[in-house]
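hey can u check if this looks right to u? its 95 residues, i copy pasted from the old doc so theres a chance i mangled smth
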Amino acid sequence: MATDEAQQIEAVVQRLAQRYPSIPFEDVEDAVYLAYGTFDDARVRDFIPLLVERRATRALATAPHPALVEPAPQPIVAPVDAVEHRPAPSLTSTA
C-alpha cells in the first residue's frame, strides 16, 4: 500500500468513526479495510480511497449493529413440573 494511499485510508477510518460514534471503532475499521480489500487488484488507484469510503459508509449504514438493535426478547419457559409428560411416539411400524 502506497504511503499516500495508506494515509488516505486511515483518514477514511477516522472520518467514519466520527460519523458513526455508536459503532465500535474496531467495527468501523473492519468495514473500511474489508472494502479496501475489494480493490487489491485495481490497476488505477487514484479513486480507491473515495470508493472505499462510499462502500464502507453503505455497509455501516445498512448493516444491523448490536449497539443499534434492541435486545431480542427472551423466550417464556414453563417450569418443568408444569409441563405434561407424554410418552414419545413409536417410530416402528406395526402394520
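The mean pLDDT is 82.
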